[in-house]
Automatic annotation (TrEMBL):
<dbReference type="InterPro" id="IPR029069">
    <property type="entry name" value="HotDog_dom_sf"/>
</dbReference>
<dbReference type="InterPro" id="IPR052342">
    <property type="entry name" value="MCH/BMMD"/>
</dbReference>
<dbReference type="InterPro" id="IPR002539">
    <property type="entry name" value="MaoC-like_dom"/>
</dbReference>
<dbReference type="Pfam" id="PF01575">
    <property type="entry name" value="MaoC_dehydratas"/>
</dbReference>
<feature type="domain" description="MaoC-like">
    <location>
        <begin position="10"/>
        <end position="124"/>
    </location>
</feature>
<protein>
    <submittedName>
        <fullName>Dehydratase</fullName>
    </submittedName>
</protein>
Length: 150
């Protein structure tokens, strides 16, 4: 169901409807192209790093989170159009074998003063592994269309 700004209230929660399992090959493939640091590419280097084992790039976690959001319950009018983040944290590494899901909560809804046809929803999204541990927490601002008045 498409949600317009007028349908969204602070405190509303949305869940992901899919899960994505991350394997070692996906971690290394993403890292090779976008974040080619040794602790994302090589087990030996990863074992001696602060991660103490192979860990996905935080940007890989962010990309998977985006996919999970798009496939989840939160369906804002106009799509999930980001207007920036207030917070982006990776409290624990994403490891090979982790299975991710997302949960989101609306923190704030505000109509735009300069663009009456839209507004902004402040959304906290937590990306969780199979043990319910947060691997990413973000607070982002999403542009959402308002319902057209007749």
């Amino acid at each position: 169901m498409t949600l317009y700004l007028d349908d969204i209230l602070p405190g509303q929660r949305f869940n992901g409807t899919t899960r994505i399992r991350i394997d070692e090959d996906r971690i290394k493939t993403f890292a090779a192209e976008f974040d080619p640091q040794p602790f994302h590419l090589d087990e030996g280097a990863a074992d001696t790093s602060i991660f103490r084992g192979l860990a996905a790039s935080g940007w890989h976690t962010a990309a998977v989170t985006m996919r999970l959001l798009v496939e989840g319950e939160f369906k804002p009018a106009g799509g999930i159009v980001g207007a920036g983040f207030d917070e982006l944290r990776w409290p624990r590494p994403l490891r090979p074998g982790d299975e991710l899901r997302v949960e989101s909560e609306v923190l704030e809804v505000r109509p735009s003063k300069s663009r009456p046809e839209q507004g902004v929803v402040k959304l906290r999204t937590t990306t969780l592994n199979q043990d319910g541990e947060a691997v990413q927490i973000s607070v982002g601002n999403v542009v959402v269309l308002r319902r057209q008045k007749p």
